[in-house]
Every structure is written in structure tokens, then in C-alpha cells.
Amino acid sequence: MSGLIAWFSSYDGLIIITGILCAVAAALPGNFLVLRRMSLLGDAISHAVLPGLAIAFFLTESRASVPMFVGAVLVGLLTAVLTEWIRDFGSVDEGASMGVVFTTLFALGLVMIVQAADHVDLDPGCVLYGSIESTPLETVLVAGHEIPRAILMLGSVAILNLLFVIVFFKELLISAFDPGMATTAGYSARLMHYLLMVIVAITAVASFETAGNILVVAMFVVPPSTAYLLTTRLSRMIVLSLIIAVASAILGHWSAKAVPGWFGFGSTSIAGMMALCAGLLFLLAALFSPLNGVVVRVYRRMKLARRILAEDVIALLYRLEERQPGRSVPLSEICTRLLSSRVATQWAVTRKVHKGFVELTDGGYRLTAVGQRAAAELVRSHRLWEHYLVTEGISPDVIHRQAEKLEHYTDRELRDRLQTESSAPALDPHGSPIPEERG
Amino acid sequence: MTSATTTSGTTADNASLPLSIQDLTVAWHRKPVIWDVEFDVSPGQLVGIVGPNGAGKSTLLKAVMDLVPRASGRISIFGKPWKQNRNRVGYVPQRESVDWDFPVSVLDVVTMGLYGQIGWCRPVTRRHREIAREALDRVGIGDFADRQISQLSGGQQQRTFLARALVQNADLYLLDEPFAAVDAATEQAIIEILREMRQAGKTAIVIHHDLHTVPTYFDSVVLLNMRVVAQGPTASVFTRENLERTYGGRLTLLDEATEAMRRRERTL
Amino acid sequence: MKWRALLLILLCEPLIASCAQGAELFSAVDVLSTVTTPSLESASSSSQSDSHLSRLIFLRDYNTRVVILGTSLLGMAAGVVGTFTLLRRRALMGDALSHATLPGVGLAFLLAPSLGLDGKSLPVLLTGAALSGLCGVAAIMFVRNMTRLREDAALGIVLSVFFGAGIAVFSVVQKSGGNAAGLETFIYGKAALLSAGDARLIAIIGAGVTFVIVALFRELTLLCFDEGFAASRGYPVLLLDILLMALVVITTIIGLKAVGLILMIALLVIPAAAARFWTDGLAKMTVIAAVCGGASGLLGSALSALFKDLPSGAMIVLVSAALFFVSMIFGTARGVLVRALRRRSLNQAIDREHLLRGLFELLESHSASHGRSDGTAAVSYSELEDLRTWTPRRLRSQLARCKAQNLVQTTTDGRLLLSNEGRTEARRLVHNHRLWELYLMTHAEVAAARVDREADAIEHVLEPELIAKLEALLELEHTESGIPESPHRISPSGTSGAWQGSAGASSAGTETLP
Q1: Please, which chains are in contact with B (at least 3 CB pairs closer than 8 A)?
Q2: In which residue ranges of chain C is CATH 1.10.3470.10 found?
């Protein structure tokens, strides 16, 4: 335990804590930015605050952090207000109005800072892009302990954001989900919007002054987006986003030292690597999320295609047997009739053989008694559907293809309903007999 | 009420009227959307608003809740402007108006109907969830309470919205096409609930598309095509002549509808 | 017409490019040295003599000339591309993609030596930028198409992750001891360091980008207007989409050095957004955006050259922002002022019509009930006030306006009358109004889209034959007065809709749904 504390108060430990606090502080409001489809707002605000910093500097003639902080937050809020104003008054697309506002403010800030550069050293790079590597160096004395200023600042912001999300959870939820409803229920969606903007501005300013702008911009968007892919509940999404944020901070710190080493370089920017790691975690979630991940979806689609092919095979065998009882069908014929690839068909047939639906006799395949029953169900579904579709007035030319699709999703109950709705036909529209329900 | 009543004398009468619209004109850019609309709705009624596409039906409902600016007119809800009486109005928007991929459960959405009563910064408690669950049972999708909303069918989504409006316990409900693209069972369930609400003395104004169900569903109708073509009790107003005036000279719709109704009856 | 205008831009760019090429003869500026020069002030602070202004105006100063040409061309190209991204509702795509180029720049610098290339040569760096920008495009497509996330999240993720990667690579470059000072210009940009070669590159690529857009104008229009329709007509929507993003990447890359990453976003967004206020036509908008972008580049870099301590990239953006705000207020198609005026005049037209029609109908009913001819049956103010829900102030101001136009007269006892002109006008309004209503009734399916209250003359909107038909109908239905009875309440009533005639149920008076 004491070893852990010692490690955390080491230089690297303090950097990790700073990174974690920044990531957590940003990910909390970030969830709502992502849900409100304003993911780029964090980026916009973090650029737009430049003139706020410059004005605060002009007014106070110092680099004291409180006026700078206030100035930056005010301009951050101004960004949100102006964006909304241009969107509403000019009826400009939200993204475009954001683009206009933040780049203009950024340019304004640059001009101001260059003007001021003659008097004092105020470098945009330094103001905007604080560096997480140097955070442990600047400390303040709190209750007898030397605590890095960054940790104090980001810690308070993280707590503020946590309280904000907990206290206003309900309001944030409803105004993000259905702003109209929120307003009619007496929670002004506009007010909530601006509250969120204040929080975003505070978080952005506090973070990039201490830990750098890349980190906060990434943490606003990436961990919440990752969490969004992993769950279907807002509360879980928030918790998950925090876990992911912490994980990317730790992983980023480690990889900043390790990864460049693999290529024979020294270490690299910790904040940059934290952002990159968040991106990697996102990629993993996008690929492997059990809910809707790319891999899962591909797998499901393949599984379904295989099931359908296997069902098509036994239905085909059934139909062939109807015409020519006792005949066994070679694989090549199945392939040509189903227009399917040899490998896939072989696989499907083998599966059905294993299940005891199909047996291999004289170089060809034939349905077993069990297979007969299963195939009869499918063919019955198919022909019932054809009959039903014709009675619904759909042209007989197209019913086969539709029934072909529907037959794979039709269970006993639906078949019975089809049977009663279409007054228990014996033949389908093409004149083939509809098999009886068995068992 | 007669035409002789004066302005000052009407406030008391208006207070009992769930909705009173006078002289409403809404214009958008250069286009008038609805003009000179006036009608009153008395309590305990199911009122259908019927008209072709682009007739301004949704705009009318939105104007009631001040969601669109109006060029002229006065709207009162139980005798007061919407702002002072908004707790008494429940609004069921069109389904497409929200993002159904949003990470909330069906129960969460229904609970939102109670937010107006819960108040700022207070948490949702178990009691609120129970009320929401009851409402879900009432609309017949109690089993889906814990599902994410994206997993619902169109009909179930509509029922969710209805349940959300139910827990609001409002006196006047405005429903924007609740029957659009829902299955027959849902349509039946919704109309049953609306009838129960009417029994309890509530009023519902429903935008409706399916002409042949109008006479069975609604006590009175407003035929709207930018201006009110006709309004009054369904039996006397919902005539072929008025429908032609609403839907234009070539009214094949009604013929089609009656034909479809006959077909359906035959198959039953 | 539109096409010619577009072609003009297209032709202009290589022309200007050749000028830039000519300029190069006067003094050769090494591309490499500009990338690596750490000195941040060159063009702006070099000369402050009185002749500075005249040197600038006549573009005598070589550096200034190159910078101004380069940035104007850049503005034009960005305006053209930006038009399409704006209409595609992807204004901020440039934001994400410009960040996405960063890791490529760093990696190119880092890896070039091992491939036997010069890591500081501009073509190498820009190739790297283009490659990683295209990776960014792929990443955006992946997130948008393969996950449940929306476009904005896709942009945000690509932006921040690529930016993080870029910073990480830059940091490696710095720590590995390579002289990478010039790389920072890619973030902030230094137009003052533009060389003739850069200007030429901007011109050539800008012309190429414009050419692609002109060539695929129709396809891109369709893509922006209705993606689903384009797909259904067999257009390769995905390919076009990727092409558009690739154009954004290319434009961004040529702008990186001139104005820097963040301000490049501005050039992609602001001119196009400004152009939107002036027109509803796409071709016109493209041209206006190009002009606006070009003007921003020109004025911005000129200002920067003229005054000390004004960074050119920022000035370009501020000029374009100024143009944007001017456009937003004064734009003739969608400007704030125009729309406010239109709204005001629409409301006034509605009020005026209400007033005149109301007066007309009241007078009509008075003369009917008193058996007197018009003129004596004046209307009292209170009757008028009761007629509609207008506030007293609104009614008075409308009345004053009508009196000023000599449409309404006051009798000696303060009652109101229509003048002869007013009568004619009111009759016309009532006639039009009822024609509109009749049109709504007879052509309900199409009517809603065509009713235009502001152009209150129905004749301007509908075909003459249709008007004739409607008028015949009007005559047929209402032979008595030539004007059909109003479905709107005529008798004053404070409460609610007495509207007669149309509904079978209601005959007169206030009606409440039973």
C-alpha cells in the first residue's frame, strides 16, 4: 500500500494522476456532447478561448491564472452563444456556424497575442498547449503537502463535473433526448445547454492549461463514443466512459515511453499517446463490441447465411424427392440448382449430415426421416406464404422470391395463422401440394 | 355561448375550455401555413384533425405550444396562455422527432413524463418507476420495460410515447399522428386508451390520416387545409362534401377507404 | 451563364499561376529554407518606409506579391470546395481532415531519410500529409458506416486521435534531434514564408481541384442535395463522397503552410457560409464563395503586409469573418435583414388584408341590415377592435398606415369608412382571398405548396386558365354579390370561431365542438 502511494507520488505517478483526472473530467460532460451530436464542440471551445486569455492578460498585465481562467471560460461560453446565435439568426447549419465562430475567435486571439508579444512573452503554443510532462514541477502548498497545481485544478474540475452529472442527471438526459419535451416539462433545454457549455468551457480551459489541449479534446469525444458502442444505458455508458478514459491515460503513459523505443527513438508526448490509446480502445470496441461490433455483425451475417443455405439444401432435396422419390442428389447438382459455391454448400451439407438430417448414399445425398420432417416444415412455410401473398393480391410472378425469404423466419405458430388466414389450402399457387403439419 | 358574449365575459367560460383558438395565422418565409383558424374544443372529447399533406396540421399543434411563431391570433388553454398552463398539456410528437438509438430504456423514456412533477435536481425514485411501469402495462408493453428503445417496433415506440404522455396526467393531450405506421393491434390499443382517457374527462386532439376510421374514433373533427374547412361533430361534419372541400375535387381517397373497409369486413 | 462564370475561375487560376512563375525569375527563394527558417517575421517587418504602401499597391515587393497571390488562390480553391462540404452539412470535415494530415507530415519527415529522400522537401512532407489525410477519410467512413455513431462523433474521433498521433510523432522528431523547427508552421502557418514555388503549387492544385468540381458539378450537386436519390439513380455515391473528402484533404494540404491547420478550416467554412446568404443557386454560390475566399486572401495578406505585427493567416480569417458578418446581415437571399424585412412585410400584409377585408365585410353587413347604400354605414372603432385578436396598438398603426395611403377615411364622429380606392383594394383582396380558398378546395393536393400570401395577387402565382376556371366557379357558387360569403366570422364576437356556411353542422354564431 505504502509502496503504491510512494509510486503515485513519484514523478511518473503524478503525471498519470494528472492524465487520469483530465480524462475523467473531460469524459463526464463528453458523454452528453456525443449524445447531443456536438462532439466537435470541445475542440472548438479549446481553440476559441485564445482571445479570452489575451484580453485577461491585457487587462491584468500579468499571467495570473485566475483572470486568465475567467476570461477563457467567458469566451468559451461566448463561443457556444455565438454559434447558436448564428445558427438561429442566419439559419446556418450548426457545424458551419461553429466553424465560423471558433476559427474567427482563434484568429482574433492570435492577432492579439502577436500584438502583445512585443511587451511580454506570451506564446500561443505555451498558453494553449500546456505540457503534461512538466505538471509535477509546479506545486502549491495545501495543508502542509506540496501538491502539483495541475492535480489540484483538474481534481476540483473532475469533482465539479461529477457533481454536475449526478445532480443534473435527469435534466441532462431529457434535454439531450427530447429537447422539446424538456422545455414543455419546465426544464429549459436552452438553460441546460448553456450549463453544459459552461462545464465544457471550464473543463477545457483547466485541462489544456495544465495537461495540454490534445488530451482534453480527445477525452471529450473518444471514451464516450467507445462507451456508446458498448452499452445501451446512459448510466452505464457514463461509467464505462470513465473506465475507458482512465485506461487510456494509463496505457498512454506507458506507451509514450515504450513504443518509440521499439523503433529506436526516445520517448514521446504523453498526451499525444493518451489520445492515440483512446483511439485504439475505440477501434477495439468498434470491431469487437458484443452489441454491434463489426466482427460480431459479420459473424452473425455469416451464420445466418449458412443457416439459410443449409435450409435451402434440405428444402431442395425435399422438392427433388417429391418429383423422383428415393433419388440421391450429387453435390454438384445441389450447387448448380442453388447457385451456391461448392465450399459453402459442402460445408452446409456436412453440417446437416452431422445433425442426421441428410445421409450420403451412392455418391449423392438424401434426406433422412428426421430431415424429411424438417424439410417439410420449410416447404410448407414457403408454399403457405405463396398462397397467402397471392390472396393478398400480389402478382404470382414475384411471390416465389418473397416466400423464399420469408420461409426461413416462419415458425409453427405463424404457419398455423397463415393456414387459417388463407383457409387451409391444399395446393400452392403453382399447383404443388402443401405438406401437412406433422407432429 | 352565443356570438353576443363580450370579451371580458368570456374568461370564465374559457377556463372550462381545454383549447380555444382564435384568429390564428402562422406564416413561414413567404408562405402562409395556416390562416384564420378558429375553433374551440370542449372537455371530454376525442377530436380528430384531418387534412391533406402540407395542410398545416402539425404546425397547428406546435402553435398551440408556442413552438412556432405566429403572425396573429390568440390561443388559450383552460383560459390561460400555454406558458401558464403547460402542466395540463401532454404532447405526443411524431415518432421521428427523437433519436431512437439513444441509450435509454423504455422505462426511462416513460419516466420522463414525470419529470415535470419531480422538479429540478431531484432524483427519480422507485415510486416514479412504478408509476411508469403501470403506464407501460396499461399500453400493453409492460414486458418491454427494460429494453433499449431501438429494439422496439414502430407500434411499440408509439405505445411508449403514449405511456409517457399518460404518466404526465395532463388534461389536454395533443397527439401528432399516433397511428402512423403502426400495426392494427397497436392502433386498437391506442384508441382504447384514448377512450379511457375520455371517460376520465380528458380531452385529446389527434392528427389523423386514415379517413375511414374517423367516424368510429372521433367525437368531432376539424377538417383542415391551411384554413379550417369544416369543424363540428363527426356525424354532421364528416361528410363527403366537406371532405371534397378539404382534399380537393378529386376525392378518390374516401372511395378507396370505404372500399378497403368493405374488403376488410369481408375477410373477417 | 453559370457555367461560363465557373469556367472563368478555372481559367484564371493557371493564368495567375504563370504570373507567379514569372515572379520567380526575379529572386529565387529556396523552398527548403522557407520550411526551416525559424525567423517568424520576414515580409511584414522588413520594411517600414513610406514607400511601403506604394510598393504593396503595385505589388512591387516580390515577397508580398507571392504571398498575396498564393493566399488569394488558396481562398478561391477553398471557397469552391467548401461550398460542397457546407451543403453536404459537413462544414467541419475540414477540421477533422486537416488534423488528420499531421501524423503524415511528421512520419514523412521521420521516415524520408531511410527511403533516401530529403525529409524537409515540401513534396515529401505533402505526400505524407495526403496519405494520412486519406487514412483520416477512411477512418471517418469506417466510423460513420460501420458503427451506430453519427457523423459528428466520427469527425471528433478522427480529429483528436490523429492530432494526438501527430503530436506524438512530432515529439519524437524533436527529441530525436532532427532540426524540425519548420514543422510547426504546419500548425500555425506562415504566409510570409510562402515562396513562388508554393504559390505555383497552390495555383496548380487549386486549378485542379476546381476543374474536378466543375467536371463533376452535376454529380456533386446531386450528392449534396439528395444522397438517396443519387444512389437510386445509380450514381456511385460512396465514390463521390470519398472524392469530395479527398478534395478537402488536398485543399487543406496546400493551405497548411500558408495559413496553418486551424485557420485553413476557416477558409473552408467561412467563404462558403457567407456565399449562402447571397443566393439559392449552387453555381452562383460556388462562384461567390470563390470570390469571397479570394478577396479574404488578398485583403488579409495585404493588411498583414501593410501593418506590423499582424499575422497573415489570422488576418485572412478575420477578413473573411468580416465578409461573413456583412453577408449574414445584408445578404440578399437569406440575410438577416432581408428576412426580417420580409417577415415584417408579410405580417403587415396580413394585418392590412385583415383590416381591409374586415372593414369591407362589416360595411357590407351594415348596409345590408340598414338598407342603406354604402357611405353612411360607417364602422366604429370598437366594432373593428372586436373583429380580430389584434392588440390596440397593432390595429392603430395599421389603421394609420391605411389612412396615409388614403384607403380608409374617418367620418366626423370618428367612425371609419373605406375610401373609393380602399373599397376597390378591399374588393380585390376579398376576391383574391376567396379565390385562394377556392383553389385550396379544388386543388388540395398541390395547393398548399403554391399558396403565396405575400404576393397576394393570385394571378402572379397561378396560370391564367386556372384563374379563369376558379373565377367561373366563384361566379357559379355566389351569384348574389360576385363575392362568395366568407367562411370567416363577420359578426363581431369576442370569443371564438363563428364561422358559417362551410360546415354542415354550424350555421352561425360561436361554435364549440360539442
Answers
A1: A, C
A2: 2-309
Considering only the top CATH level, what class is A297-367? Answer: mainly alpha
- Say if CB C330 and CB C276 are below 8 A apart: no
Look at residue C374 and tell me whether its pLDDT is greater than 50: no
pLDDT at C188: 61
Interface with chain A: mutation pick from C151, C161, C263, C303, highest number of A CBs within 10 Å: C161
* Mean local confidence (pLDDT), C464-477: 73
Q: Which CATH superfamily is domain C2-309 in?
A: ABC transporter involved in vitamin B12 uptake, BtuC (1.10.3470.10)
The string over C216-232, giving b where at least 16 C-beta atoms fall within 10 Å of a residue's C-beta and e elsewhere, is bbebbbbbbeeeeebee
ipTM over 0.95: no
Q: Which residues of A fall within a CB distance of 8 Å from C262?
A: 47, 103, 106
pLDDT for residue A1: 61
Residue A127 scores a pLDDT above 70 = no
Sheet holding B220-225, edge to edge: B89-92, B172-175, B203-208, B46-50, B220-225, B227-233
Q: Which of A438, A306, A308, A316 is nearest to A367 (CA)?
A: A316
The values of phi and psi at residue C352, to 5°, are -65, -45
Tell me the residue length of chain B: 268
pLDDT at A311: 87
Task: List all residues 6 or more positions away from A363 whose beta carbon is below 8 Å from its beta carbon.
Answer: A328, A330
Nearest chain C residue (CA) to A34: C153
Task: Judge whether C503 is closer than 8 Å to chain B, CB to CB.
Answer: yes
CB contact under 8 A, A170 and B118: yes
Q: Which fold has domain C339-477?
A: Arc Repressor Mutant, subunit A (1.10.10)
Interface size, chain B vs chain C, as Cβ–Cβ contacts under 8 Å: 178
- Determine contact: A173 vs chain B, CB below 8 A: yes
Query: What is the count of residue pairs from A and C with beta carbons less than 8 Å apart?
Result: 211
CA neighbor of C226 nearest in space, from C218, B29, C244, C83: C218
Query: Is C388 near chain B, with CB under 8 Å?
Result: yes
- Per residue in C249-264, pLDDT (tens digit) is 889 888 877 777 778 8
In C, minimum Cα distance to A253 occurs at C168
Q: Do B6 and C494 count as a contact with CB atoms less than 8 A apart?
A: yes
Q: What percent of chain C has pLDDT over 90?
A: 17
Q: How far is C444 from chain B (nearest CA, A)?
A: 4
Give CA–CA dist B84/C309, Å, rounded.
57
Identify the CATH number of the domain defined by range A2-291. 1.10.3470.10
Cβ pair C217, C283 in contact under 8 A: yes
Task: Compute the average pLDDT of residues C164-171.
Answer: 87
Of the partner residues A97, A272, A278, the one whose CB lies closest to the CB of residue C171: A272
Dist CA A374 CA A353 (whole Å): 13
- Domains located in chain B, CATH noted: 18-267 (3.40.50.300)
Whether residue B209 is predicted with pLDDT greater than 80 in this model: the reply is yes
Distance from CA of C11 to the nearest CA of A (A): 29
Q: Can you give the residue ranges of every domain in chain A?
A: 2-291, 297-367
- pLDDT score, position A231: 92
Q: What angle do CA C241, C247, C252 make, to 5 degrees?
A: 130
Average pLDDT estimate for C113-129: 80
Chain-wide mean pLDDT for chain A?
Answer: 85
Please report the number of interchain residue pairs, chain A to chain B, with beta-carbon separation below 8 angstroms.
67
Task: Nearest by CB to B148, from A173, A182, A232: name it.
Answer: A232
Residue A233 near chain B (CB below 8 Å)? yes
Q: What is the pLDDT of residue C178?
A: 58
Displacement of CA A177 from its chain's centroid (Å)? 17
Distance from CA of B105 to the nearest CA of A (A): 7
Question: Which chain B residues are within 8 Å of A234, Cβ to Cβ?
Answer: 102-104, 108
Taking an 8 Å cut-off on Cβ atoms, the answer to whether C441 and B229 are in contact is yes
